[in-house]
Amino acid sequence: MAASAGSPAVQTPARASLNRRVLLLGLVVVAALLAVLLLNLGRDPHSIRSPLVGRAAPAFSLPPVGGGAPVTSESLRGRPLVLNFWATWCAPCIEEHETLVSTARALGRDVQFLGVVYEDEEDRVQVFLRRHGSSYPSLLDPDAKTAIAYGVAGVPETYFIDAAGVIRAKVAYPLSPEAMAENIRKVRP
Amino acid sequence: MKTVLAVVAVTVALAAAAAAQGTGEDPAQVVGAPRGPRLEGPALDARAKEIAGLLRCPVCQGLSVGDSPSTMASNMRAQVKDLAAAGYDQEQILAYFERSYGEFVRLKPPLRGVNWLVWLAPAFGLLAGAAVIAWALRAPRLVADAAPPTGAALPGPDTLPDDPSLARYVLRVRERAYGWPGGMAPRPDAPPADTV
To answer: Is the ipTM of this complex over 0.85?
Structure first.
């Protein structure tokens, strides 16, 4: 009726086509977001793609907890190495400690295990190791230069390095026995 | 004299090598020999601060290494300062950290590959927004051209909406506004209301 002529209840063709275009654009944007979501749904949120995986492990020369000659990465070549960054204040590190100690014991000289202490004090580390046991050396990294060279962003982080000194895997969560076995296979043919 | 100098040079070189050994890894093997001059004092502090501001703190998202109070960031600041003191330039220092942490560690993504999108998207968004605004400003004129309003299309004093509830309000408004009894427009031939 004439009274409704003031408000555009009847759409002009131009307005209608604008609405269709806006709707289409919205659908394209939503579809793109959904596609990204679906593509990443299957990914493990704990896995970190370290740029170092597949590359030579950074060299290090660090003093062991309790004193002694520095342990160098050079002297460990020829054997696979499991390098575990940890701290006594880190609860997940306590959780995986048993797995690390028992696996290192079981594999003996086949695989070298090393701990690198991250942002912690030597006294506390010694107390911790006495209480929880140990089967491999832990090294001190006082100014965190080695942690930085390995791209450590938190603890625990474990690097699996093959006999040629190439990093094959990086794990940034507490290792279960299964995860440990799976990653050991990557460095031990 | 020459012998003394040579001995001093060798001693300094050995000391430098020992220092590099102590920290584990020689950064020169990662990013090549230092490209700039060795720095110290206020110049070193300024350069280190500048570069730390370009690095993302890996343990506290959204903060630069320069701004973060975390121990990790303070260790990274010390590392930046060591590298700058040794004469590594800004790009070498950023590349050193990028080797370990990935491109994520750069607060300013370098112009390469898919990163062009990050730099071009704002400009593209601005252009797209301007286009939409221009289109929206043009659109009403098109509508006006298509259907110019005529007197016949406007509501008259006695037209009412089809909806009875709306019509009731329109009548009340007309009654208040014009003093028409019941909101109905007086017929031209009818006597004025107040004379009845």
So the answer is: no
